[in-house]
Amino acid sequence: MIKRIIYIIVIAAIAFFPWTSRVLAGSEDVSQWYTMLHEDTGEILMETCHVVSVGDGFIDEKNRKYSVTRVEGHTAQAEFIDTLNIEASALAFQANIGLELGLARAEPQSPSKKAPEGRLVAIYHTHSDESYIPTSGTASVVPHGDVYDVGDTVSSSLKNSVGLKSIHSWECHLPHDGSAYARSRRTAVSLLKKNPDAILDLHRDAAPLSAYATTVAGKPGAKVMIVLGRQNPNLKANEQFAFALKNYADKQFPGFVRGIFYGNATFNQDLSPRALLFEMGSQENSKEAAERVMVNFINSIPAVLYGVTPTGGTAKVEALEHTKKEKGVAVSAVISIILLVVVGSAIYLFLSEGSIGGVIARLKRFKNVELKEFTDTGEKTDGKNEE
């Protein structure tokens, strides 16, 4: 009898496993993205490889919140809930974060340009193979995809702009399946032992190019989407952190944050009150496009955690520098044309006159005769106006 019961349990587990692995993925369907539609207007709200289920949510660029009411195949219908005031939540986060990190000061001080000594953030990648087709020719590179390179760029940007150190893990969590988050959880736990102020899981989404495309100083960029796991006890804390980042980025780098997705998972965010997942563009964007946005957006981290304002690297600064370079190129072109005309004229005069003395005489005649005749208007010089 006992053997029979065990046999039934094993058979049930085998039959149940494929479905379970899909749910554990958090989940993602890289073969075909999900499309979330406004249930009243049919407007496309978002497209993502995250498996969308009833109860999931999305906050768009204008802070309008939607909740999924129905899913059929890869199409989800969502109802409008409300337009959120994320600034109030952002201000509350920044009012309390100093106390949480032990950095509170007795008196308010002007914004610093350098992160406090000894502070750090952690970066890792659950889906190790994720890459950008325009850059690598494929969406999957084993064992380390393009997202690791973007992670390195993010890490360097934090250090160079505000002196904030980061731990960037190159641990591989392949295969890209339902157990990836279980494997990356061990990495996250190990990173948290270093006591970072925030831990970031960097991904790239699978969606059409239009879902993430933007520009940075006239060049292609890839928007960022913040992902929250709604099945974890730290959701409210993670959400407040996400609101603070989006609020800051919306003001400093408008158009860079695509929105915030609430998925039916934990994404290991139950491990920390400041754990977030970032989708850095889609497979249709280039790696360079993702980096252009991330080196700007990531400055939101030290801004909201420590009140640190970077000295450079912002979208406005890059745009200004780009404009100056373009103007400089235009001015250089004009100067070059003028020099060519002057040099060409000098050579022509020398060849025509046969000597330096002849050229000088020709220039004097031009000044005293041709130029005088050209500028002479024929007006009388007795100071009286003609009728």
Summarize this, please?
The protein has 387 residues and is an alpha/beta fold. It is built from eleven helices and 13 strands. The chain has an eleven-stranded mixed beta sheet with strand order 2-1-5-4-3-12-11-13-8-6-7, sandwiched between helices.
Number of H/I helices: 11
- Corresponding CATH superfamily of the domain at 81-313: Zn-dependent exopeptidases
Helix fraction, binned, reads 40-55%
- The class by helix and strand makeup works out as alpha/beta
CATH topology of the domain at 81-313: Aminopeptidase
Notable traits:
20% strand, Aminopeptidase, 387 residues, alpha/beta, globular
Structure in words:
The chain has 387 residues and is of the alpha/beta class. Among the domains are: 81-313, Zn-dependent exopeptidases (Aminopeptidase, 3-Layer(aba) Sandwich); 329-365, no CATH class. It contains 11 helices and 13 strands. α2 packs across α7 (235-252) and α7 crosses α9. Residues 5-25, 312-327 and 377-387 have low confidence and may be disordered.
